[in-house]
From TrEMBL:
It comes from the Bacteria. Gene3D superfamilies: 3.30.410.40, FAD/NAD(P)-binding domain. It holds the Pfam family GMC_oxred_C. It comes from Streptomyces exfoliatus (Streptomyces hydrogenans). Its cofactor is FAD. PROSITE patterns: GMC_OXRED_2. This is GMC family oxidoreductase. Residues 235-249 form the Glucose-methanol-choline oxidoreductase N-terminal domain.
Length: 495
């Protein structure tokens, strides 16, 4: 094994990892090494696979696992899940920030986060949806939202419930991921920044409450990297797995799989919070199929562009707990004959109370962790109630004057009245898992890191990615994770 030293090693080159490596290497006196398990396609979009950059669909290349339940999908490539995602960027409510501030302190409050949100919007090049990207279905969905009394709001800011368009990290059908945005050619020319692709962080080496090194396997070949500070940014599934392989986690569970616990942190892998939802399918009219086909011929067909923040009776005051998404286009999974499309309205729970878990099956970094999202598992049945409320709203959209001429409700009982078992069978995910290394004070046994990402009980180790969010925001998570990574990078840099 060869050993190399840096000031900071960032483990995981996804959304947060790209922000951290870019911001921390702005100081020429700080050497930074970014370690990513997947390929590094470089700063030039010409060097990237065309399918990975095509923002009209969700790519299935460069992922950790294929042919698995959809909630397990995540990117394994420089740029992480920003290379495989839907390119939507929205922001949560004031109530989310109140929750975050209670867990992480003033840095997590709404006003304190604003400069980081703005910096992320700018550096990611987030833009408004161009008019030509609205299909006839999306235009009708905007009319339906107005018809049903949902006011227009800015989706990239906290604010009231309502309807609008997200900001997108897509330009003329090209997905602009976090690596292209934060690790551009100028940034990569910095002599103090090293990017190691195809390199899996196997485990951290701990001694007397400090990290002494990290074993990294580059295309199978192991070596040890040393640093003053180790920052784990391997995502909601990868970060708790790396901590647990290194002996940090629930002590009894670690012993069960033959890992010696070094630091007993019961919260590692717990508190998994993802946003489940159900798609209400409709039957498109031949006119809608024809209009969508024309849009597809022009290369301008996007399945969904319109979003509604809706509130069930359980939503916080002035907040929302549902995203309602009218969509029409090629199916996300499977296929239809040419010229035929899928249309419908989805209801996603954006503030679920159920909590799942990520756990290790073994200490082998090549064995995927067990991921139990535990959707709709809260004993009071609140998540099921919110889902039913969302599906009732989705049905009102389907029945609106604006949409009902384009697609019809299928026969049968309304989705919001279906037996619970059937709702569960139809459950999908919005792909926004967070919380498996949650932020909170050391006195809270479920907390893993403090408000600046420091791992409780370990001197020179931080976690800084979606896994540290104390609760899932009522939003798509990419922009919140970018902003949190900007904030944590500034904290690490001492500003
Ligand atoms: C299919 C899909 C669609 C989505 N759509 C949207 C959307 O439209 N809008 C939105 O806001 N959000 C969306 N998201 C969520 C968003 O992409 C995530 O919130 C965001 O990427 C989280 O950032 P992260 O840095 O925590 O993790 P990631 O971006 O997943 O990065 C983690 C990185 O760590 C690497 N890694 C893991 N383990 C190791 C290891 N042991 N060693 C080295 N490297 C490792 C991974 O390969 C990966 O590159 C979507 C996600 C998915 C999967």
């Amino acid at each position: 094994m060869t050993a190399v030293s840096y000031d900071v090693v960032v483990l995981g080159g996804g959304v947060a990892g790209c922000v951290l490596a870019s911001r921390l290497s702005e100081d020429a006196g700080r050497s930074v090494c970014l370690v990513e398990a997947g390929p590094d396609y470089g700063p030039d979009p010409g060097g990237w696979p065309a399918r990975t950059l095509d923002s009209r669909a969700l790519p299935r290349e460069d992922v950790w696992e294929r042919n698995v339940p959809v909630h397990r999908f995540r990117g394994r490539v420089i740029g992480g899940s920003s290379c495989v995602n839907g390119c939507w960027n929205t922001w949560g409510s004031a109530a989310d920030h109140a929750e975050w501030e209670r867990a992480g302190g003033p840095r997590w409050g709404s006003a304190a986060m604003e400069p980081y949100r703005t910096a992320a919007v700018r550096r990611m090049g987030l833009r408004e949806v161009p008019d030509r990207e609205l299909s006839p279905w999306s235009r009708a969905a905007l009319r339906a939202a107005r018809e049903l009394g949902h006011h227009e709001v800015d989706m990239s800011l906290p604010g009231p419930p309502g309807h609008g368009l997200p900001l997108i990290n897509s330009v003329d059908g090209r997905r602009w991921n976090a690596a292209l945005a934060y690790l551009d050619a100028d940034t990569r020319r910095r002599p103090n920044l090293t990017v190691l692709g195809d390199s899996v962080a196997d485990r951290l080496i701990l001694r007397d409450g400090r990290v002494e090194g990290v074993v990294v396997r580059t295309r199978g070949v192991p070596r040890t990297l040393h640093a003053g500070l180790y920052v784990v940014a391997s995502g909601t599934f990868g970060s708790p797995a790396l901590l647990m392989r290194s002996g940090m986690g629930p002590a009894d569970r670690l012993r069960d799989i033959g890992i010696d616990p070094a630091v007993d942190l019961p919260g590692v892998g717990a508190n998994l919070s993802d946003q489940p939802g159900v798609f209400l399918p409709l039957v498109p009219t031949p006119e809608l199929d024809a209009a969508l086909a024309e849009k597809e011929r022009d290369g301008e067909l996007y399945v969904n562009r319109v979003l509604v923040r809706a509130a069930s009776e359980h939503a916080p005051a002035d907040g929302w707990d549902l995203h309602i998404l009218p969509s029409a286009g090629p199916p996300l999974f499977g296929s239809l004959p040419p010229g035929r499309y899928e249309a419908g309205v989805s209801a996603f729970l954006v503030k679920p109370v159920s909590r799942g878990r990520v756990s290790l099956r073994s200490a082998d970094p090549d064995e995927p962790p067990a991921i139990d999202p535990a959707f709709l598992s809260d004993p009071d049945g609140r998540d099921v109630a919110v889902l039913r409320s969302g599906l009732a709203t989705a049905r009102r959209f389907a029945g609106s004057a604006a949409l009902k001429g384009l697609a019809a409700l299928p026969e049968g009982p309304p989705a919001h009245e279906l037996p619970e078992a059937e709702l569960r069978a139809r459950l999908g995910t919005y792909w926004h898992p967070v919380g498996t290394c949650a932020t909170g004070p050391a006195a809270d046994p479920s907390a893993v890191v403090d408000g600046e990402g420091r791992v409780h009980g370990v001197a020179n180790l931080r976690v800084a990615d979606a896994s540290v969010l104390p609760t899932v925001p009522a939003a798509n998570t990419q922009l919140p994770v970018l902003a949190v990574a900007e904030m944590l990078a500034a904290a690490m840099a001492g500003s």
